[in-house]
Structures are given as structure tokens and as C-alpha cells.
Amino acid sequence: MTNIKDLAKMAGVSVTTVSRVLNEHPYVSEKKRMAVLEAIKATNYHKNINAVHLSKGNTLLMGVVLPFTGHPYFASLLKGIARIALEHDYKLVLFQTDYLESRELDALLMLKEKQIDSLIICSRACSLATIEEHLHYGSIVLCENIKREQISTTFVNHYSVFFEALEYLYQKGHQKIGYCIGRRSGSSSKKREQAYKDFLVKYDLHFRPEYIMDNCLYVEDAEKIIKELKTMEVPPTALLVTNDQIAAGVVTCCHNEGIAIPDELAIIGFDNQPIAKMMNITTIDIPHEQMGENLFLQAVGEEISHTEVKVKLIERGTV
Amino acid sequence: MTNIKDLAKMAGVSVTTVSRVLNEHPYVSEKKRMAVLEAIKATNYHKNINAVHLSKGNTLLMGVVLPFTGHPYFASLLKGIARIALEHDYKLVLFQTDYLESRELDALLMLKEKQIDSLIICSRACSLATIEEHLHYGSIVLCENIKREQISTTFVNHYSVFFEALEYLYQKGHQKIGYCIGRRSGSSSKKREQAYKDFLVKYDLHFRPEYIMDNCLYVEDAEKIIKELKTMEVPPTALLVTNDQIAAGVVTCCHNEGIAIPDELAIIGFDNQPIAKMMNITTIDIPHEQMGENLFLQAVGEEISHTEVKVKLIERGTV
DNA sequence: TTGTAAGCGTTATCAA
DNA sequence: TTGATAACGCTTACAA
Chain D bases under 7 Å from protein CB? Predict the structure, then answer.
């Protein structure tokens, strides 16, 4: 493998001069530049980027932590991140955690060891304290509604979004409203639960724990939801569903089971995915790709900021 | 940032000794080991991994090239790769290409510059010759039915799978069969097209170019497909659809448009995704995650191999 | 405009 | 069992 020293020897110049032409720095005579360029051609030379990293102290590598990539929410986020990363000459290192904290710690370790310059955590499993301990080694940005002085965030205000969706259903005459979420322990799920409880209090409605269904992550969980609904003595008349994929599943299952939508059951999805349009599902539009871009920019930027993204209800046929 | 030299000074030993305890090499007295360990604790020391990379010449980083992660096919592949990468202490660097050759070349460049040890190309846009030029810098594996001495591959035999699906439809009485694919230029699309043409010849059927619909990548393309179908004077009675997501979209559209399935239009999807089960769509099961694992193992392994994966038809209600 | 030489933080070789 | 010291391949003061 030829290196910069070899080039220098071949071109009859110093390594500095070679480095200068390699990095397009000024102060190199055309003659020497040509000589170096020729040597590069002749040897099919290319940098060893690890030496560059060691020397410069950065890698232009950005870590992205997410539970899984197949999930439409994370896929959109990732797409946004990938697009802007490309523009900024960053590459992405993927940490697929399946919500395991240990995987997240792997990512944090890579930050510590300087293999990645910064880290976007799309869904956090470890403690904030752990994050803060690592802030020292590179920037870390989060995708959740948390305001710490040292950590930039881009987030949806799940509390108010959820509350507004509930109000909308209430105005449409629904008083028995259930919802399903991915994992109850997630920070957005907690906000939603709070909104839900506050909503019940506001309208003096009865709290039924069975109306909250968790572990709804994939399309196939829709069957589980409908099955549960059918066991309830007093089933809800409306459902806020984790995301549009699952909402589509729910609509399909209702079809199969002869449950009329929206008359017997109203559905609101989240994300405004194409499938929701196709199946005429009322949903809440969330600009995930744009969120991804913003996360990236926060990660490479200097200042700390907290960006709340705007969402909007798309009224369609399932309410 | 404290380094190995600092530790050596603090512990009163040489850098070599420090390196030895860091890497759990033998020949270091318990006394000195302890001293070093203490220094590590005291300073909250951690390696600069880039120096390690430079010194060792590898990075434990595997590149993964794919057009987009949101697509269920690639998401499954990625999931398989991610799972096994974890076991092998590899991290993944993602190259989301959107089928742009330039992005693929980025990945190849990183291989050249030694930032990644090897590369899995899930969907190739550049020429085989280009790939072969880079083989020298690290292993590259492909996910397509191509047999070169120097390149390992894991693939589905799209020709025979497609042919068998066509035969199945023929046996069910269909003679006017159309199909849709992602991008016509892809290597698997070419195999499918060949199978399609051979099938027509075998049964002496008329070739209608409009029965081949390309650029079907997302759910929303289903609408386009149905729209096209409705403009045809002699529409097909059966459709082989790119993947189950789109098949689900097609089924939904048919529902909306009052087209009876399977009586007016039979559908076969690909991939055996959960949505296919839920919507009772006949499909072809392809073990993507397993393919991902195999690709990874080929990438880290020494020998070249060519693995054909087995698929199977899942008979359900859309044929 | 050019080059020498000192880093960057490890690992590996070899002699003791 | 230990430690100098030379790689690894690049960037960057600094001097000329």
C-alpha cells in the first residue's frame, strides 16, 4: 500500500507538499503539484483515512441509535437524517438497539473512543444521567420532549397533540376512547398517558385501564387489539392508534370482523403515511423526515436548541 | 484527554506494559497490572480507537449499501445483518443510495480508504467491473444471482421463483397475467422478465408489453397500477406484485374500486410480510433476515461462496 | 513556495 | 517479565 512518503519520494518533494496537494492547500508550484498528481495516478494511491482521523481527531461519522429500522416512524427519521448527512459529507453508523440499553451504551462507547463524532438518539433506553456523562466526548441530540441545558432536542409535543386528538373525538361525540402505544415506558407514551388522564378529568369521564393497550409495534398487533376489544364489556367507540401501519391493520381487522368504521369504531392514526391516505384513515401528520434533518443539524451545530415540530390533523373517513 | 503515555507515567511503567494490560496480554506482574488499572480508574481513561485502527489496519466497521431503509425488503435484510453484526462486534455504516451510483462509489471509496473492512451491497447500481476493481481493498458481497469467482453472493433465484408463480397461476386458469416490479433495470427484474417471456413462449401466450408495470416501489404506487389496469382493453386476470406492501395496496384499491379478488383479479405478493397474512394475500415467502445473516458471514469469512436461498409459495385467498 | 520534524495514540518487535 | 523504540500514515507548526 503506497503512502504519502512514497509519493514524496517519487515526486521528488516533501511529504508536506504531497499533503498540500492532497488537501488542496495553497503554496504549491504548478510543477510540483503536477509531479505529485502523476505519482498519485501512477500508484493508484489513496489516503488511509484512519491516519487522517487520528491526526485530526474527528471522523465525520455520525451515530444513529434507533430500536429498529423497519418501523415506518424510524425509517422516515433515518431517511431525513441520511439525506442531510450526505450533504454534509457525514456517514451514518447505525445502532439498532431493539430497545436494549446495552446497545445504546455501545454507541456511547464509540463516542467516547472517538470513532463517531456525535450521536443522534432517536429513542432512548438509558438514563439521562448516562447521556450527560458522555456529553463531554461529543454532541448528543435527542428526539424527545426534554429540556436540558446541554442537550439539543427535536420533538413532537405528544401531550398537546394527544390532547387535541382526544378533544376532536369528544367533539365528534365519543366519550369512550381507547388508545394503543408502542411501549408504555417510552417517554412519549408517558406524555400521552398524562394527556389521556387529564382529558378524562376535564370531561369527568371514567378511567378504564383496559382502554390503554401497549406493545403495539407491528401491523400484526392489530389483530391483538381487536381481539382485546371484543372481550371488553364496554368497548371503546374510538381508538387512537400508535401509527398508520397499525391503524391500517386495525381497519382491515374490523373489516374482517364486520365492525363498521367509523360507526362502531372510530380510528385516528399517527404519521400520515401513504397507507393512511389510501385507506382513507384520519391521521395526524408528523414531519418525520424534517425532524431527522433537524436532529442532524443540531448534532453538527454548536449551540444547544430545542425544536418543537408542528403537526396537524388530517380529517378523513375513519372518524 | 489522557493517553497511554500518561498512564505509563502515572503507573510508573512503560507504555508497552499499559498496552498489555489494556489488551489482556500475558506477561505482566500483578503488581504492575494493578498500578495500571488504578491509573485507568483515576483518569477515566479510554482508548482512542482511531489510533488502534491506524495501528492494526482494520476498523470492525461493515458498510451496508441499500437504496432505502423504509422498504420492507431492505429493512428485513438490514435487520438480519444487524443482528449477526452485533454478535461479531461489528458496527454497520449505512449507505442509503436511492439507487444513485455515486453513493455506492462513496461506499467503495471508504473501503479503499480503509474506514470500513468490508461491504455488503444489497442492491447494486454500479458495474461489476467497478466492484471487482475494489475487491483488492476488502471483501465485498452481493445480494444477487451472479457467480463470479471473487465475489460471494446470497440470492433468490428470481427466475425460477417467478416461473413457478406463473405456472401456479396458469394452473389456476389464468392466461392473462401481468406483473409489477420496482425498477426494470435491476438484475432481479431482468431475471423475472426472462422468466415471464419464457413462460409465455412455453404456453404460447400473447406478449402484451403493458402487462409489465415498473417503478412500483411504494404502497401508493398501487393506485397507479389499478388506474393503468382500468385503461387496458384486455386487462390481466392475475397480477404478480413486487412485494406484499404494494399487494396490500392493490387489494385495498380493488376494494375501493369494486374489483373482486380473486374473481376479477388474482394477486400474488412477495416476501410473506405480516400484512399479507392479515389481508389473506397469497404470497411467496422469502427469508430476508436469514439472507442478511448469510451476507454478513460471507463478508467476514475467508472463502467465496454462492448461497441460493429457498423460498416457498404461501397459498391464501387472493388467487 | 518548500521542507523538516514533531505530533496524533496505539500496537508490535526485539533486546534485555 | 519488562521496556525502548520503531512502525502505522497523516497533519501542521515552524523555519527557511
Answer: 1-13
